[in-house]
Structures are given as structure tokens and as C-alpha cells.
Amino acid sequence: MAEDKEQIDFTWKGKDKNGKVISGEIAAFSDTVARAELRKQSIRVISVRKKPKPLFSKAKAKITSKDISIFARQLATMLESGVPLVQSFDIVGKGNENPAMAEMLLAIKADIEGGDTLAQALGKRPIYFDELFCNLVEAGEQAGVLEGLLDKIATYKEKSESIKAKVKKALTYPIAVVVIAFIVTAILLIFVVPVFKELFDSFGAELPGFTLWVMGMSDWMVANWYYVIGAVVAAVYTFGYFKKRSKAFNHFLDRTMLKLPVVGMILHKSAIARFARTLSTMSAAGVPLVDALESVAGATGNIVYYNAVMQMREDVSTGQNMQYSMLQTKLFPHMVVQMLAIGEESGSIDKMLDKVADFYEEEVDNLVDNLSSLMEPFIMVILGTLVGGLIVAMYLPIFKLGAAVG
Questions:
Q1: I want to staple 73 with a disulfide (CB 3.0 to 4.6 A). Which of 154, 163, 238, 331 is the partner?
Q2: 3-class SS of residue 45
């Protein structure tokens, strides 16, 4: 589809209604589209050429999830202030600092001016606006409460981005520790230990077993460092390759991550928070429970919870009580099940689930902070053991020599 392609900048030359030669630039999907657009403006085209790119041009800005989250909040604020939809897109688009985001918003504005509903215009860009986002917007348009629902979408996106950032921080920290430990150890083995080895060889003295073992490891690293780097690069590439292409690998990874100490607890609680926040938002929009659960499953961010929620959807569609189905999964704490049951009975399921989401988002926040506090001494212990061990190995012969001389 044309909407999914990247627009190209063209320079053009033509004549206006009075025959005066004019020129300028235009962004279009092809030179044919550019010519058609110019003709609409009553310009008789002389030439249209692709604009040459600068030799040292900057990489094109990308549209991130954060950009979408900020846009949702800006649009909600504009509409609640009484600004018409098309004008809101014009203001938000022209004022956006990300050129790619600005271009997309102005293209959405053009679609709406062309007769599309907001949901239809957003649905043409599924890379940036998922099915959940579009369904909620459509529900808001049909019920005539787009402003209020956009506010809920904006809150949902902000909370989702916040919890994603916290989970990312929790996962990045341990990896960073391992990488730092590996780099420091490699530097010591390749550059520092060989200097000590030359010194000890000149003494001709018998060396302790621990020192000989470290020197042997150093010799191996010096001789095979390129294999080690190659193996690390290959491992990282293989991991990335299978993560992008293998569903079975991702399933294995998701299940394994949930079993890890501390990190697994963070992932469990973040999945529950996402479940509660998404279901709350969709319930507030009046989306039927069975339809909502499919979107909720995808929002949990983990295959174990995805499968559990899809099983709940199947149970609910056959008339089973959701509370009982949730208990059967053995993934949701008793408090969550009870809060959902109270919400169902009182007709305020969205408010109850909002409280659940708030509670578990705070829990994730606290766990991430605790992990950071735990990791600091852990880093010191790992680096201290590695660096300290290597230093002790190098100084043991010197201590022995000093004792012998004394």
C-alpha cells in the first residue's frame, strides 16, 4: 500500500496560471504522484527530479513507541480543549520535533480530510498503531466519546511505556555486569598477565600452581583472542537471529526468564500490570469481554501469560465464569482474582482493574529499584573476585620470594 511506503523529496519547475516560471520542492511516493499533486495546484509542470541527498546526510529519524505515546496525550488534550480533529493533527504534526512523526501525522490529517474516520486513517499504519489502539479509537468514535477515550488511550500508552522501560532496565543491568566482567578479565589476561610472566621467567623460580594456571589461561587468550571475539559475535548474532525468526525459541526464552530469581518476579508482576491496565482500558471503552481478552493477551508481553489469557478467552466464550478460569491458570494472585470478581459483581470492572494495575506497577518499580541496589554489591563482588584473583595470582610469587629472602 502506498501509505506504508517512504515518501521521496522531489524538486520541480513549472509555470503558474499567469505563465510565470516557478520552482520548489514536494514530497511524494513517486514522480507521477508529485506531478499529479502539482497539477491539482494549477501548476503546469516542466520538470520533476528526485532531490539529491547530501553526501554526509543524517540517518532518517525513526518513530518510536514513546513518540506514539506523546502523540496520544497531545491529541487527547487538544480534543478535550475543543480543538477540531483536523486542526489538532495540523498543530501536533507541524509542531513535532521528529520529522518522520510530523510527516506521518500530516498524512493522517490528509486521510481524514479525504473522508476516512480516525480509526481508518490510523489502521492504514499498523506498524505504529496496533489493533488495540485502532479498536479503542473506533469504539470512541461510534459512541461519540472520542475525547474521553483518547485520554484513556494516552494514559494506557504512558503506563505501558513506563513499565516497558522498567523491565528493560531490570534486564539490562545483569547483562551489563557480565559484559563488564568479561571485558575487564580479557584485558587483564591479554595485556597485564604477560608482563608479569616475562618478569617471572627472568627469575627462573618455581611458581605457585594458581599463578601457573592463570598464566596458562593468559597464554590461551593471547593465542586465541580472535576466536573468543568471533564466538561472542556469533553468539550475539545467533541469539538475535532466532529471537526475530523462531517462535519456539521465543517461547523457551519467555518461560526461562520467568524462572529467574528477582528478574522473573519483575516479569510476572509486569505481565499482571499490563493485563489489568489493558483490560481496564478496553472495559471502559465498552468492548465486549471476549473480544477484549484477545488484545489483552498480546499486551501481556510474555507467551506464558498470552497462552493463559487466550485459554481464559476460550473458557469465557463457552459461558464459564472468568474468575474460575483465571484461578485455573495458577498465574494470577488471589488478590487479582478477587478484585476482578468484585468488579464484575459491582459493574465497575475497569475501576477495580485500574487499582490492580496501579498496585503492580508500583511493585515493579520497587523491585527494579531493589534489583539496582542488589546489583551494586554484586558487581563489586564479581569484579573484586576476578580482578583480585588475578592480582593475587601475579603477586603470590613475589610474596614467596620475599619470604624466602627474609
A1: 154
A2: strand
Measured CA to CA, the distance from residue 149 to residue 136 in angstroms comes to 7
Distance CA 32, CA 37 (A): 9
- Report which residue type is found at 284: A
By DSSP bridging, strand 8-15 and strand 21-28 are antiparallel
SS3 state at 394:
helix
Q: Is 26 helix (H, G, I), strand (E, B) or coil?
A: strand
CA dist., res. 337 & res. 320, Å (int) = 15
Residue 3, pLDDT > 50, answer no
The residues facing 24 across adjacent strands are 12
pLDDT digits (tens, 9 = 90+) for 165-179: 888 877 787 788 778
- Global confidence as pTM: 0.67
> Which pLDDT does position 4 carry in this prediction?
42
- Residue 116's alpha-carbon distances to 6, 134, 139, 281, in angstroms, are 21, 13, 15, 24
Give the C-alpha separation, 123 to 57, whole Å. 31
Measured in degrees and rounded to the nearest 5, phi and psi for residue 57 equal -75, 150
Sign (positive or negative) of CA dihedral 83, 285, 280, 352: positive
**Least confident interval from 27-41, 152-166, 341-355:** 27-41
In single-letter form, the type of residue at position 315 comes to D
83 φψ region: left (φ > 0), alpha (ψ -120 to 50), beta (else): beta
Q: How sure is the predictor about 54, in pLDDT bands with cuts at 50, 70 and 90?
A: low
C-alpha cell at 352: 477495580
27-50 mean pLDDT? 80
Q: Is the dihedral of CA 367, 154, 117, 289 positive or negative?
A: positive
